[in-house]
Amino acid sequence: MGKTDKLSVFISLVLRHNPDAAGITLDEHGWADVEELLAGINATGRRIDRAALEEIVRTDNKQRYSFNEDKTLIRANQGHSIPVDVELKEQEPPEFLYHGTADRFLESIMSQGLMPMSRLYVHLSRDAETAYKVGQRHGKPVILKVHTGQMARDGFQFYLSENGVWLTGKVDAKYLERQA
Ligand code: HQG
């Protein structure tokens, strides 16, 4: 992993899970003060300035972060484990979305359903290819096709994050179909 990638992983840890790792706090909407974040990261011995941070945000392969309008604040678009309200937009999902996981989790998922685990929401992908990549992070990938249209008709809510990740609460196993 290159220097910039390592910094990006650290920023994602700070903005999603553990702001204290950079000695900062997030507000209720998940925003960190950019100056505080930069000072906090530098205080850990890592080196970053505003230009480097802007470059990380601009080039992030999953567009994980957003600045506010005047670029004084920054937050992660999704993926949090700490309770913040990033003002997600509720949206009607397509008929199917996908979830990539590892084969060792399958039995548990098929009996308990998909749970948010350490995060605030279950994360769903718009296509099977993306889900496959997500599954690979955990082990031997398995793709689940999620009957999101039916879920919506049954009253479940869905949100689309700024960076195009679909989020919802617990997914009952009856809405899951193994795809590969
Ligand atoms: C599994 C990445 C056992 C679930 C990705 C997953 C995504 C269960 C793991 C985002 C279960 C949690 C989120 C159950 C769920 N029994 N295992 N009942 N219910 N699981 O990392 O969806 O690169 O918290 O299948 O691209 O893998 O970080 O969630 O395998 O968008 O930006 O428990 O993170 O983006 O793992 O990934 P995670 P995820 P970033």
Count of helical segments? Answer: 6
**What Rg do the Cα atoms give?**
17 Å
* Overall outline: elongated
User: Helicity range of the residues?
Assistant: 25-40%
Q: What's the β-strand tally?
A: 10
Order of helices and strands: HEHHEEEEHEHEHEEE
Separation, N- and C-terminal Cα atoms = 30 Å
Residue-averaged pLDDT: 97
Strand line-up in the sheet with most strands: 4-8-9-6
Uncertain stretches:
none
- Structural class of the secondary elements? alpha+beta
Describe this structure in words.
The protein has 180 residues and is an alpha+beta fold. It is built from 6 helices and 10 strands, in the order H-E-H-H-E-E-E-E-H-E-H-E-H-E-E-E. The strands form 3 sheets. Strands 4-8-9-6 form a 4-stranded antiparallel β-sheet, with no helix packed on it. Strands 1-3-2 form a 3-stranded antiparallel β-sheet. The chain has a 3-stranded antiparallel β-sheet with strand order 5-7-10. The longest helix is centred in the first third of the chain and has 14 residues, at 3-16. The chain is elongated, with a radius of gyration of 17 Å. The two termini are 30 Å apart. The mean pLDDT is 97. The structure holds ligand HQG. Residues 62, 64, 79, 101-102, 105, 108-109, 112, 114-115, 117-119, 123, 134, 138, 165 line the site of ligand HQG.
